[in-house]
Specification:
The structure is a single chain. Helix 3 packs across helix 15. A hairpin with a 6-residue loop joins strand 3 and strand 4. The protein is globular and about 55 Å long. By secondary structure, it is α/β, with parallel strands linked by helices. Helix content is 46%, strand content 13%. The structure holds adenosine-5'-triphosphate (ATP) and magnesium ion (MG). The site of adenosine-5'-triphosphate has 21 residues, from helix 3 and helix 13.
């Protein structure tokens, strides 16, 4: 029995925590999180996934956003539909346990890059059901992704709110990436995001921040320089790494998204495509540099889902 089977029994929690201390699950599971809509999460997820896949990493993108951003950005027509039940085989179905992960995954959407798409209603239903299940629901995604050896990295795209789906993602994660667009709304919300990640991380001992990624940088506007300074200050205050490589504002990115492609596939020599390649290298090295055998995810305490 793994600790995860036992965590519902409160008395065993201490033993289970100790038992998990030297387990880092395969693969790395990275949540892309920001509780503001339009903060760059889906753009970062799809383009970083593509760039990591180009580096030879086997990558799975899991869409956990009811708006289904990855379905559009990676050019999928939507999840498969189960022929018998007529239900979508999406991330929601996998979370509810009515479909297995491998049944829902679209293989080789790009070389080395697989995708588990979302379906709005199915994912909403899953979210409600998992909340009702309490701790067992909170760790379901962890259980699904634990020891999935088909992939080196799983990227979780999350909703732009403090939804239970974000908490499930953070609970399942070995790391978090936070996009930071140097504009008033996303920057004002950055403290809330970092607080939420810290809160979940303290309870579950998971989800350390791998880095804050500056997105849509550039332009001459003065406020952007001020906003960038604010991002730097918050990273220092929360003691989280501000990644060296940033993604510039680039209209080519929007054009590629309209075509349902990562910019690296559509305009490989564009500024943003090059930036994503450098960013992928930096993140790859940061992940590899993390000491192996350190606690990746420990037993989540039976906390209420926020
Ligand atoms: N570097 C960039 N250059 C130009 N446009 C960008 C860049 N990064 C992101 N965008 C644009 O910003 C918008 C918001 O990005 P995105 O959809 O990734 O945000 P999100 O956080 O996933 O939003 P939501 O919470 O609504 O899902 C998109 O239209 C995207 O094309
Ligand atoms: Mg999105």
């Amino acid at each position: 029995m793994t600790w995860i089977n036992a965590i519902c029994i409160e008395e065993e929690l201490h033993i289970c925590k100790n038992a998990s201390m030297h387990i880092r699950p395969t693969p790395e599971v990275i949540t892309v999180a920001h509780t503001k809509g339009g903060a760059g999460k889906s753009t970062l997820t799809s383009n970083l996934a593509f760039a990591l896949a180009q580096r030879g990493r086997r990558v799975l993108v899991v869409d956990l956003d009811k708006q289904c951003g990855q379905t559009m950005l990676l050019g999928l027509s939507g999840p498969r539909i189960d022929r018998l039940s007529r239900q979508p085989v999406d991330s929601g179905a996998v979370l509810r346990g009515v479909a297995r992960l491998h049944e829902g995954v679209w293989r080789d959407v790009h070389p080395n890059l697989d995708v588990l798409p979302a379906h709005e209603h199915s994912l909403a239903q899953a979210s409600d059901e998992l909340v009702a299940e309490g701790v067992a629901g909170q760790v379901r995604l962890y259980e699904v992704l634990y020891d999935q050896r088909d992939w080196d990295v799983v990227l979780l795209d999350t909703p732009g709110t403090q939804s239970p789906l974000l908490t499930f993602a953070l609970t399942a994660s070995t790391g978090v990436l936070v996009p930071a667009i140097p504009e008033a709304g996303p920057v004002a919300e950055l403290r809330t995001v970092l607080d939420h990640i810290r809160f979940v991380g303290e309870v579950t001992e998971s989800a350390e921040v791998v880095g804050v990624v500056r997105m849509r940088v550039g332009g001459n506007a003065n406020y952007r320089a001020v906003a960038e300074r604010r991002i730097r200050e918050l990273c220092t205050e929360y003691d989280v790494p501000l990644l060296r490589n940033k993604v510039p504002e680039d209209a080519k990115l929007g054009e590629a998204q309209l075509a349902g492609l990562p910019v690296g596939a559509y305009f490989p020599m564009s500024r943003s495509a090059i930036a994503f390649r450098y960013l992928a290298e930096e993140i790859d090295l940061a992940l590899l540099a993390r000491p192996h055998g350190e606690p990746g995810v420990a037993a989540p305490a039976p906390s209420p889902v926020r």
